[in-house]
Amino acid sequence: MPEGPSIVILKQEVQQFAHQKVIEVSGNSSIDMDRLQGKTILDFKTWGKNFLICFDDFTVKIHLLMFGTYRINERKETQPRLSMIFSNGELNFYTCSIKILEGDVNDYYDWSRDVMNEKWDPKKAKKSLDKIPDEMICDAILDQDIFSGVGNIIKNEVLYRCQIHPESLVGEIPSKDLKNIISECSIYSFEFLDWKKNFELKKHWLAYTKSVCLRCDLPIHKKHTGKRNRRSFFCTNCQKLHK
Q1: Which of 50, 132, 155, 216 is deepest in the core (most CB within 10 A)?
Q2: 188 and 169 co-located in one domain
Protein backbone atom coordinates (compact mmCIF):
# COMPACT_ATOMS: atom_id res chain seq x y z
CA MET A 1 0.00 0.00 0.00
CA PRO A 2 1.52 3.37 -1.00
CA GLU A 3 2.30 5.56 2.01
CA GLY A 4 1.73 9.30 2.26
CA PRO A 5 5.01 10.36 0.59
CA SER A 6 4.20 8.29 -2.52
CA ILE A 7 0.86 10.08 -2.86
CA VAL A 8 2.63 13.44 -2.56
CA ILE A 9 4.85 12.35 -5.45
CA LEU A 10 1.72 11.54 -7.46
CA LYS A 11 0.40 15.04 -6.76
CA GLN A 12 3.66 16.57 -7.96
CA GLU A 13 3.72 14.46 -11.12
CA VAL A 14 0.21 15.44 -12.27
CA GLN A 15 0.57 19.20 -11.99
CA GLN A 16 0.50 19.53 -15.79
CA PHE A 17 -3.23 18.76 -15.60
CA ALA A 18 -4.08 21.40 -12.97
CA HIS A 19 -6.61 23.91 -14.37
CA GLN A 20 -7.14 21.67 -17.41
CA LYS A 21 -10.54 20.61 -18.76
CA VAL A 22 -11.45 16.92 -18.85
CA ILE A 23 -12.11 16.32 -22.54
CA GLU A 24 -12.94 12.63 -22.24
CA VAL A 25 -13.56 10.32 -19.27
CA SER A 26 -13.99 6.54 -19.07
CA GLY A 27 -13.27 3.53 -16.88
CA ASN A 28 -14.91 0.70 -14.98
CA SER A 29 -15.50 2.65 -11.77
CA SER A 30 -19.09 2.87 -10.53
CA ILE A 31 -18.94 6.64 -10.06
CA ASP A 32 -20.99 8.89 -12.36
CA MET A 33 -18.43 9.52 -15.12
CA ASP A 34 -20.60 12.20 -16.71
CA ARG A 35 -19.94 14.41 -13.67
CA LEU A 36 -16.32 14.81 -14.81
CA GLN A 37 -16.94 15.36 -18.52
CA GLY A 38 -16.08 18.92 -19.53
CA LYS A 39 -15.17 19.89 -15.98
CA THR A 40 -11.99 21.83 -15.13
CA ILE A 41 -9.68 20.55 -12.39
CA LEU A 42 -9.21 23.30 -9.82
CA ASP A 43 -6.56 21.62 -7.68
CA PHE A 44 -4.90 18.39 -6.61
CA LYS A 45 -4.61 17.66 -2.89
CA THR A 46 -3.48 14.80 -0.69
CA TRP A 47 -4.59 13.70 2.74
CA GLY A 48 -2.46 10.86 3.95
CA LYS A 49 -2.96 7.99 1.51
CA ASN A 50 -5.85 9.70 -0.29
CA PHE A 51 -5.34 11.48 -3.60
CA LEU A 52 -7.90 14.21 -4.23
CA ILE A 53 -8.90 15.69 -7.59
CA CYS A 54 -10.82 18.87 -6.82
CA PHE A 55 -13.52 20.33 -9.07
CA ASP A 56 -15.76 23.33 -8.35
CA ASP A 57 -18.54 21.49 -6.49
CA PHE A 58 -17.17 18.01 -5.81
CA THR A 59 -13.93 16.07 -5.36
CA VAL A 60 -12.85 12.70 -6.71
CA LYS A 61 -11.16 10.71 -3.93
CA ILE A 62 -8.74 7.99 -5.03
CA HIS A 63 -7.17 5.41 -2.72
CA LEU A 64 -4.65 3.06 -4.33
CA LEU A 65 -5.36 0.30 -1.77
CA MET A 66 -2.72 -2.46 -1.69
CA PHE A 67 -1.92 -2.81 -5.38
CA GLY A 68 -3.23 0.32 -7.09
CA THR A 69 -1.22 2.02 -9.82
CA TYR A 70 -1.41 5.01 -12.13
CA ARG A 71 -0.03 5.97 -15.51
CA ILE A 72 0.59 9.48 -16.86
CA ASN A 73 0.41 9.90 -20.64
CA GLU A 74 0.45 6.14 -21.14
CA ARG A 75 -1.79 3.13 -20.47
CA LYS A 76 -1.59 -0.45 -19.26
CA GLU A 77 -3.22 -3.24 -21.26
CA THR A 78 -5.95 -3.67 -18.64
CA GLN A 79 -8.94 -1.34 -18.49
CA PRO A 80 -8.45 1.54 -16.05
CA ARG A 81 -10.77 2.24 -13.14
CA LEU A 82 -10.66 5.88 -14.21
CA SER A 83 -9.20 7.47 -17.32
CA MET A 84 -9.18 11.22 -17.94
CA ILE A 85 -8.01 12.74 -21.21
CA PHE A 86 -6.93 16.37 -21.48
CA SER A 87 -5.69 18.52 -24.35
CA ASN A 88 -2.12 18.00 -23.09
CA GLY A 89 -2.19 14.32 -22.09
CA GLU A 90 -4.00 11.68 -20.06
CA LEU A 91 -4.18 10.32 -16.52
CA ASN A 92 -5.14 6.70 -15.77
CA PHE A 93 -5.76 4.86 -12.49
CA TYR A 94 -5.90 1.10 -11.94
CA THR A 95 -6.96 -1.29 -9.15
CA CYS A 96 -8.03 1.47 -6.79
CA SER A 97 -10.99 2.78 -4.84
CA ILE A 98 -12.73 5.81 -6.35
CA LYS A 99 -15.45 7.87 -4.69
CA ILE A 100 -17.04 11.28 -5.19
CA LEU A 101 -17.15 13.73 -2.27
CA GLU A 102 -19.87 16.33 -2.67
CA GLY A 103 -19.30 19.99 -1.82
CA ASP A 104 -16.19 21.51 -0.22
CA VAL A 105 -13.34 19.03 0.29
CA ASN A 106 -12.30 20.92 3.43
CA ASP A 107 -15.46 19.65 5.12
CA TYR A 108 -14.15 16.08 4.87
CA TYR A 109 -10.57 16.32 6.12
CA ASP A 110 -8.71 17.60 9.14
CA TRP A 111 -5.48 18.74 7.50
CA SER A 112 -3.77 19.02 10.88
CA ARG A 113 -3.79 15.19 11.08
CA ASP A 114 -1.66 14.79 7.94
CA VAL A 115 2.02 14.41 8.89
CA MET A 116 3.11 16.00 5.58
CA ASN A 117 0.65 18.89 5.50
CA GLU A 118 1.76 22.40 6.42
CA LYS A 119 -1.06 22.42 8.99
CA TRP A 120 0.20 19.25 10.75
CA ASP A 121 -0.30 19.66 14.51
CA PRO A 122 1.89 17.39 16.70
CA LYS A 123 0.15 18.63 19.84
CA LYS A 124 -3.16 17.32 18.52
CA ALA A 125 -1.50 13.96 17.85
CA LYS A 126 -0.23 13.86 21.44
CA LYS A 127 -3.73 14.54 22.79
CA SER A 128 -5.11 11.72 20.66
CA LEU A 129 -2.47 9.31 21.93
CA ASP A 130 -3.21 10.26 25.52
CA LYS A 131 -6.76 8.97 24.97
CA ILE A 132 -5.59 5.47 24.01
CA PRO A 133 -3.10 4.46 26.74
CA ASP A 134 -3.80 0.72 26.34
CA GLU A 135 -3.08 0.65 22.60
CA MET A 136 0.19 -0.75 21.31
CA ILE A 137 2.31 1.96 19.73
CA CYS A 138 2.57 -0.14 16.54
CA ASP A 139 -1.22 0.20 16.13
CA ALA A 140 -1.41 3.85 17.19
CA ILE A 141 1.17 4.98 14.62
CA LEU A 142 -0.88 3.39 11.84
CA ASP A 143 -4.10 5.11 12.94
CA GLN A 144 -4.86 7.44 10.01
CA ASP A 145 -7.00 9.67 12.23
CA ILE A 146 -3.86 10.46 14.25
CA PHE A 147 -0.99 10.04 11.77
CA SER A 148 -2.53 10.38 8.33
CA GLY A 149 -0.08 9.16 5.70
CA VAL A 150 2.04 6.95 7.95
CA GLY A 151 2.32 3.37 6.73
CA ASN A 152 4.12 0.24 7.86
CA ILE A 153 7.55 1.18 6.53
CA ILE A 154 7.49 4.52 8.33
CA LYS A 155 6.17 2.84 11.49
CA ASN A 156 9.08 0.40 11.62
CA GLU A 157 11.74 2.97 10.84
CA VAL A 158 10.44 5.56 13.31
CA LEU A 159 10.24 3.05 16.18
CA TYR A 160 13.76 1.84 15.42
CA ARG A 161 15.07 5.41 15.39
CA CYS A 162 13.32 6.17 18.66
CA GLN A 163 14.42 2.84 20.21
CA ILE A 164 10.89 1.83 21.20
CA HIS A 165 9.57 -1.73 20.95
CA PRO A 166 6.46 -1.89 18.70
CA GLU A 167 4.42 -3.75 21.35
CA SER A 168 4.93 -0.99 23.92
CA LEU A 169 1.70 0.41 25.35
CA VAL A 170 1.14 4.08 24.53
CA GLY A 171 0.35 4.98 28.14
CA GLU A 172 3.57 3.41 29.42
CA ILE A 173 5.93 5.19 27.04
CA PRO A 174 7.66 8.21 28.67
CA SER A 175 6.26 11.54 27.45
CA LYS A 176 9.57 12.66 25.94
CA ASP A 177 9.82 9.45 23.93
CA LEU A 178 6.22 9.75 22.77
CA LYS A 179 6.85 13.32 21.58
CA ASN A 180 9.97 12.10 19.78
CA ILE A 181 7.92 9.43 17.98
CA ILE A 182 5.35 12.03 16.94
CA SER A 183 8.06 14.33 15.60
CA GLU A 184 9.87 11.55 13.75
CA CYS A 185 6.67 10.43 11.99
CA SER A 186 6.67 13.75 10.13
CA ILE A 187 10.45 14.06 9.75
CA TYR A 188 10.84 10.56 8.35
CA SER A 189 7.93 11.04 5.94
CA PHE A 190 9.70 13.95 4.27
CA GLU A 191 12.97 12.02 4.15
CA PHE A 192 11.04 9.09 2.64
CA LEU A 193 9.75 11.51 -0.01
CA ASP A 194 13.23 12.69 -0.99
CA TRP A 195 14.70 9.19 -1.03
CA LYS A 196 11.87 7.78 -3.11
CA LYS A 197 12.13 10.60 -5.66
CA ASN A 198 15.84 9.77 -5.97
CA PHE A 199 15.11 6.02 -6.27
CA GLU A 200 17.13 5.24 -3.16
CA LEU A 201 14.52 4.57 -0.47
CA LYS A 202 15.46 0.96 0.32
CA LYS A 203 19.12 1.69 0.90
CA HIS A 204 18.14 3.95 3.81
CA TRP A 205 16.08 1.34 5.65
CA LEU A 206 17.58 0.56 9.06
CA ALA A 207 15.02 -1.95 10.36
CA TYR A 208 12.37 -2.71 7.74
CA THR A 209 13.06 -6.16 6.19
CA LYS A 210 16.48 -6.24 7.88
CA SER A 211 17.90 -9.27 9.70
CA VAL A 212 20.61 -7.69 11.86
CA CYS A 213 20.46 -4.64 14.14
CA LEU A 214 22.97 -2.03 13.01
CA ARG A 215 23.35 -0.74 16.56
CA CYS A 216 23.75 -4.03 18.42
CA ASP A 217 24.87 -6.48 15.76
CA LEU A 218 22.14 -8.83 17.02
CA PRO A 219 19.28 -10.48 15.12
CA ILE A 220 16.33 -8.31 14.14
CA HIS A 221 13.04 -9.95 15.14
CA LYS A 222 10.21 -10.18 12.61
CA LYS A 223 6.67 -10.51 13.98
CA HIS A 224 3.09 -9.56 13.12
CA THR A 225 2.17 -7.24 15.97
CA GLY A 226 -0.89 -5.55 17.42
CA LYS A 227 -4.52 -5.78 16.46
CA ARG A 228 -3.66 -4.61 12.94
CA ASN A 229 -1.41 -7.68 12.58
CA ARG A 230 1.15 -5.82 10.46
CA ARG A 231 4.78 -6.85 10.11
CA SER A 232 7.17 -5.38 12.63
CA PHE A 233 10.96 -5.54 12.51
CA PHE A 234 12.68 -4.72 15.79
CA CYS A 235 15.65 -5.35 18.07
CA THR A 236 14.77 -6.61 21.53
CA ASN A 237 18.09 -5.31 22.87
CA CYS A 238 17.94 -1.61 21.97
CA GLN A 239 14.20 -1.05 21.42
CA LYS A 240 12.74 -0.86 24.92
CA LEU A 241 9.45 -2.57 25.70
CA HIS A 242 7.17 -0.38 27.84
CA LYS A 243 4.32 -2.42 29.34
Answers
A1: 155
A2: yes
